[in-house]
From TrEMBL:
TM regions (residue ranges): 6-23, 35-51, 57-82
Top-level taxon: Bacteria
Keyword field: Membrane, Transmembrane, Transmembrane helix
Protein name (database record): Uncharacterized protein
Length: 103
């Protein structure tokens, strides 16, 4: 039980860290502190109000998993598409320089 709780805490902390860092990079900020408290409060609020009964939890697990997995699989493809568009639209590079860019 202790190992399970510890691993759950580490997993939630990692997700929170990734979300805060992603928002920081999205808004091109150098400091992550403005988002830390608000994201933590939002995570706590969502966890408390997302599911109120066992019936709602069962419904969410049965019907929401497919959408979650679909979105999770689309995220890497979206990053690849955005990277491809950004490389193609970089001004001042010739086509041979664009083809030789290593990621």
């Amino acid at each position: 039980m202790v190992v399970w709780l510890t691993s759950l805490f580490i997993k939630i902390s990692l997700y929170l860290y990734v979300a805060v860092i992603a928002l920081t990079h999205t808004f091109e900020l150098h400091d992550h502190k403005p988002f830390t408290f608000s994201m933590t409060a939002m995570m706590i609020g969502l966890s408390l109000f997302m599911v109120k009964t066992k019936t709602e939890l069962a419904h969410l697990l049965l019907h929401g998993e497919i959408v979650f997995l679909f979105i999770t699989e689309l995220i890497p493809a979206t990053y690849l598409l955005v990277d491809w568009v950004r490389v193609r639209k970089t001004p001042g590079q010739s086509s041979t320089e664009t083809d030789n860019v290593q990621h």
